[in-house]
Write a structure and sequence with these properties.
This protein is α/β, with parallel strands linked by helices. The protein contains ten helices and 15 strands. The protein has two domains: 141 residues, NAD(P)-binding Rossmann-like Domain (Rossmann fold), CATH 3.40.50; 180 residues, Dihydrodipicolinate Reductase, domain 2. The longest helix is centred in the C-terminal third of the chain and has 20 residues.
Length: 347
């Protein structure tokens, strides 16, 4: 085992990129060596915050460094394919924020690049590392609820942050709003119902509270069917307040109900609980470690360190990331057609 620090480069130093930088800094075994920022102002901010870190305004120059082990990419969705491809072609392991890409072709090309070069490609579905959402998965896999038949993953929150230069409210750069946050919940639904095979079809509906912008889907709901007969409901509203997420999973024997609430998504002081029914009694399952995306982001960096050093399995592979994009794009197509749509599997 190699105990030297795993050297990270970071592409993107916006609001979420700054959280990634902090997660790298506080993770045992990780070292933030270089940052690439999209503007001089962001670059100046990175240099002020991390004086010992080399700062670039051109990521292409940074990824060519020979001393970087893993590059963490946190840029707007429409740039994922471009930046990630450059990272992989520079023979660096990759941690890529979700969505993996804005098309399945982009996903397939990145997977092929990583496979050809025998590089790690992890996608940032950090909820899989949650002490609570992950505990629910563990209990499902252990047979606590019997054979899983149904999952509900639901979110009620305040509107999205606009992002640098308003990119998140520009559909040409987002690709689809289903790719923004519902993608996390499609990923969880597929993860929880994995014993039912692959997701096969989805029917979705959405509307917007913003006049003249139906593409900005504040309210979204979908029902997704699996090959094995189970189904999932994924639902979200961005027209509410604070940040409240719920999952409910039922099976042939019992049920799980988990909930998470915070004044905002990026809080270190949430309230959360997991309750479980085994067919006879209801119990509250203890969750010893706080859960929330800031905590899971740190766990994600730690998993990359463990994967690099020890060959630990990635929490979310490129194949998983592609599935998430496929589910979302099928849901977007269903919104447009008003009909159920098949989910494209990898060839």
């Amino acid at each position: 085992m190699n105990d030297r620090p795993v050297r990270f480069g970071l592409v993107g130093f916006g609001a979420w990129g700054q959280h990634h930088a902090n997660a790298i800094q506080v993770t045992d075994g990780a070292e933030l060596v270089a940052v690439s920022a999209s503007s001089q102002a962001s670059a100046d901010s990175a240099k002020k915050t991390y004086e010992a870190v080399d700062v670039y305004t051109d990521y292409r120059e940074m990824v060519q460094r020979s001393d970087l082990d893993v590059i963490d990419v946190v840029v707007p969705s429409y740039l994922h394919h471009e930046v990630a491809s450059a990272v992989l072609r520079a023979d660096k392991h990759l941690l890529l924020e979700k969505p993996m890409g804005v098309s399945l072709q982009e996903c397939d090309e990145m997977i092929q690049l990583a496979n050809d070069r025998e590089l790690m490609l992890a996608v940032g579905h950090e909820l899989r590392l949650s002490s609570m959402w992950g505990k629910a998965k563990e209990m499902i896999d252990d047979g606590f609820i019997g054979d899983p038949l149904y999952a509900l993953v639901e979110l009620s929150r305040n509107p999205y942050r606009q992002g640098a230069n308003g990119w998140r409210y520009d559909i040409d750069r987002v690709g689809s709003w289903v790719l923004e946050e519902p993608i996390h919940f499609f990923d969880l639904a597929r993860w929880y119902l994995q014993s039912n095979g692959n997701p096969s079809s989805v029917y979705a509906s959405a509307n917007s509270r913003q006049p003249g912008h139906p593409e900005l889907q504040d309210n979204f709901s979908a029902i997704m069917h699996f090959d094995g007969g189970a189904y999932a409901v994924v639902s979200q509203t961005l027209a509410a307040f604070e940040h409240h997420q719920t999952i409910k999973v039922t099976g042939t024997k019992g049920a799980l109900w988990a909930s998470w609430s915070g004044a905002m998504d990026r809080t270190r002081h949430p309230t959360f609980s997991l309750r479980a029914f085994d067919g006879e009694t209801v119990q509250t399952v203890p969750i010893d470690k706080p859960t929330g995306e800031l905590f899971e982001l740190e766990d994600q960096i730690a998993r990359m360190v463990d994967a690099f050093r020890n060959g630990k399995e990635l929490h979310c592979t490129g194949k998983d990331g592609r599935w998430s994009v496929a589910m979302c794009l099928a849901a977007e197509a269903s919104i447009r057609s008003g009909k159920p749509e098949l989910i494209r599997q990898a060839s």
